[in-house]
Structures
1.
Amino acid sequence: MNGSNDNNAPTTDAPQPVIVPRAEHPISRSSISPSALKVLYRLKDAGFQAFLVGGAVRDLLLGRSPKDFDIATNAHPEQVRQLFRNCRLIGRRFHLAHVRFGQEIIEVATFRAAHTLVDDDNSVDEDSRRVLDTHGRILRDNLYGTIEEDVWRRDFTANALYYNIADFSIWDYTNGVPDANARVLKLIGDPATRYREDPVRMLRAVRFAAKLDFRIDDATAAPLTKLAGMLHSVPAARLFDEVNKLFLAGCALRSFELLREHGLLAHLFPDLAAALEADSTGLGERLVRLGLQGTDERVLADKSVTPSFLFAVLLWPVVQRQAKQHLQVDDSEIGVLQDAFDSVAARAQQRVAVPKRFSMSAREVVAMQPRFDNRSGRRSLRVLEHPRFRAAYDFLLLRAAAGEVEQSVADWWTEIQTMPTEARVEVVEQVGAAPRPAGVKRRRRRSRKAKPSTGV
Ligand code: ATP
Ligand code: MG
């Protein structure tokens, strides 16, 4: 393959795409990043095929603004590098080109080789191009191919659309345009096979359904529960990345519901799934749902979200349960919570590897909770100076909203923060006084009855 290839037409002996001309689709160049357009045009002018691909085409088609703009081309990575000064090749097995424009990086991928048939022993494909393990997972996929090959290795039909810079048409090999318009998420090929190749696609199905508000096609949904156990074979670090995408991108609550519905939660966070199942009070369930809903609201409002708070939420019902079982009359509640957190987190890490910096601050947020019970004496105010106070306090609010602690306790901490130091000291030194700061108007106590928490 080289730059002199025909730029406008698909090669003839391969599957033909439906070509949707510019006049028949809504994607306008004005909604494509100018940097991506530059890359597309330069590739085209050098005689290569150049397409906008993946999530960007799908999102533009749906009238959403894309997270990033990925490009696919028949130029080899070295050829891409020669065209751009600001370009770096990344990846060990399959090289991708990253073209940098200030903060923005445009990823340029050379078309990948096709799926080839799996041998009977399920280990090496017919011409050794793709190596699979005994579960049918792809271990190596490292040859460059044509667009007709590239398309079949993509996951969902709506993710397999190519916007051609040569004439602004969309090339659709998989019925992706009608599927996207009908808001249906459909795997390309045989769903069970595609999940076996890469079990993370099960999580991607849930993520896209939640994020795009798509229905998962019946055939695509059918194997999920049965194959959910394959998540065990996915490296825990990759699952951490996927969990962040599921829960920190504004559709956490819906993702959580779908993970449960399709039996995936039990393989991602087995202890959480079991704790929620066993909890007859419904408190843990309410806390998790409100925590995820709160995360979604923060994302929507463009506020920061962190994996630490998320993991504190997801581990809390399990930590609570374990701490309750172990707490003796004389134990320090903080110590018991820390021990419970350590053992619960260690088990959870086997599935989802949370980097230390996040799990450490989740641990602090959890272990600080009993300190909010103490509201007399100057020492009780020290918690306000703790570097993790803000997160721990937010977590307290969440527990109160879920009905796990008295709302008046949360209100006390809300109000004390608004007071000058001397007034705070006065409040906590009124020995035996009611926990309401003096001079602060009594707020109407919010009903502890949980508001409908499903959000859907
Ligand atoms: P987002 O908007 O969340 O980034 P996206 O569709 O761009 O969504 P990416 O994870 O960025 O998703 O991947 C880009 C494209 O690469 C996808 O649209 C899909 O075509 C393909 N792809 C990514 N991961 C896989 C996978 N595990 N299996 C098959 N194809 C994949
Ligand atoms: Mg993307």
2.
Amino acid sequence: MPGRNFLFVPGPTNVPDRILRAMNRAMEDHRSSAFPELATGLLRDLRKVFKTTTGQAFIFPATGTGGWEAALVNTRSPGDRILAPRYGQFSHLWIDLAQRHGLRVDIIDVDWGEGAPSDRIGEILSQDTQHEIKGILIVHNETATGVTSDLGAVRNAIDAAQHPALLYVDGVSSIGSIDFRMDEWKVDLAITGSQKGLMLPAGLGLVCASPKALAAREQAKCPRVFFDFGDMIRSNATGYFPYTPSIPMLYGLRESLAIISEEGLDNIFARHQRLAEGVRAAVRAWGGGLKLCAKAPKWYSNTVSAIMMPEGTNAADVIDVAFRRYNLALGAGLARMAGKLFRIGHLGDLNELMLLGAIAGAEMAMRDVGLQLTPGVGVAAAAEHYRSTAVPLAPRTAAGPSPDPALTPGAKSSPPPPPPRAARRRGGLRLSRPRGCRRAR
Ligand code: PLP
């Protein structure tokens, strides 16, 4: 099919050309005297994306699932009790992995469409006066349902119960895209993969461990070899890895960290929020029984929107038509959500017009399978959101006036639409206003 494939699954995400170019290089000797400069720089700079100065970063040739496993086997023993809310397919799979390692998981089942119930977690921890619960597993952004949990509230609940359990956080579809603060929220083990906010291919499982988590290794008896933190720490200390690293992925990671640092994490979070608001405006405008799976604005995810289809329609048909007719890849509904929803991933290297393409394609595919939507209504809502929240343009040159009526009194242009419901504060997470982004008027 001519033209680009529109990749709008919530990972893998689009890999910027800069990263592709950085990865396109001859292999190198990973035991050379030059190698430690690359490895040491990555291990140092990666911590900034996790917002930690005290945590230790690990780079495994793995994926997010490998990161889950590394976090648990290095800090736990078979039979340990842990607490885990389950509100989507990824929280379910992490629990399954823990159980298969012999951990006893106290599961809090939550409606899919909601996030981590911090009050309930606090109650359970307060009742655990013997401190039998050793860890709490939280999926920050449940990619299956488009739900972001309030990690600050979870941390406050743990502290209020004065409970010493380790806090394990899956940040696979949040870290690098949604505000995440390892040190401030006292996260003990934070996990991500390379193929989402870091804009790389899949292939790296990235973990950061707090000093408390590293100390827990002394007692942890889960068997571990490939994911052993100890082997990594010893090799990394000299600038090497205990086994052959993927050279292209490491150079790609270096470029990814450079791109993130150039844009700035807070600007990246604000961009994701603004882009996500446009998708949410489209869903509202579509109406007709379409709605987000996330049950309340406090759960809305800025990296993925899971869109429930009306009763009697099949989301798999929309995904199939979008792919085969319009070269657009949308995310499928997982497990119990199969056929009930489709997902638009909006994370990573992305801008307004790319996302408008995905919204247009989803809208066309929905009409193709028989949904009665007004043509263009979702695209228009998103486009007007982006116009009304756009960065004012600087004057073109010293000689000419700015094309932006906001800066050129008297210039004629269609006024921006009324403000969308602005994304201001979500839960405990305060997001800074986009750099140069004017307040919605
Ligand atoms: N956790 C979350 C929130 C995810 O979205 C995913 C994958 O999409 C995973 C874990 C598993 O990661 P991977 O597929 O890289 O093993």
